[in-house]
């Protein structure tokens, strides 16, 4: 392919046309849904609603610690998958990890899983998994 052909915009015209039609269709659907759709406003529908609780009283009220513990547990196990999935893909592929590093990498991952197990046991003993 010549350098002149790489900057030929006529190749991309069908994509631009499709993108334009897609944007026009989305805008049209949003306008139609807003004008045609039901829109009964009531005091209950206009009332603010947050985190599964009715907003009664002061906004600075104390929350149960369970909300924070569940959020932290989600982050712990989310990060676990974030690190373990790429390791598993590389570790079991032929020629993935050099032989010199297989031992240290294995023990590092085993230590990581042990730390997650400690966090899981801690949360279990604190009663994070019990729904009150």
Order of helices and strands: HHHHH
Domain unit count: 2
pLDDT < 50 runs, ≥5 residues = none
CA radius of gyration is: 27 Å
- Count the E strands: 0
Strand content: under 5%
The DSSP helix count reads 5
N- to C-terminal separation? 67 Å
Task: Using the alpha-carbon principal axes, give the shape.
Answer: flat
Q: The biggest beta sheet, please?
A: none
**Structural class, from helix and strand content?**
mainly alpha
Fraction of residues in helix:
55-70%
Global mean pLDDT:
82
Overview of this protein structure:
- The protein is mainly alpha-helical and 132 residues long.
- The chain has two domains: 35 residues; 62 residues.
- The chain has five helices and no strands.
- Helix 4 packs antiparallel against helix 5.
- It starts with a helix and ends in a 6-residue tail after the last helix.
What are the SSEs and their pairings?
Elements: H1 3-6, H2 13-36, H3 43-46, H4 65-91, H5 99-126
Helix pairs in contact: 4-5
Q: What are the main properties of this structure?
A:
66% helix, 5 helices, mainly alpha
Quickly describe the structure.
The chain is mainly alpha-helical. It has 5 helices and no strands.
């Amino acid at each position: 392919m010549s350098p002149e052909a790489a900057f030929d915009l006529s190749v991309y015209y069908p994509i631009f046309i499709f993108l334009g039609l897609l944007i026009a269709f989305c805008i049209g659907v949003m306008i139609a849904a807003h004008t045609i759709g039901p829109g009964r406003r009531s005091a209950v529908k206009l009332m603010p609603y947050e985190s599964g609780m009715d907003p009664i009283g002061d906004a600075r009220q104390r929350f149960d610690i369970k909300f924070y513990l569940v959020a932290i547990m989600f982050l712990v196990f989310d990060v676990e998958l974030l690190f373990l999935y790429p390791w598993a893909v590389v570790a079991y592929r032929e020629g993935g990890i050099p032989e010199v590093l297989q031992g240290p990498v294995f023990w590092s991952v085993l230590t990581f899983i042990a730390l997650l197990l400690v966090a899981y046991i801690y949360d279990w003993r604190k009663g994070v998994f019990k729904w009150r």
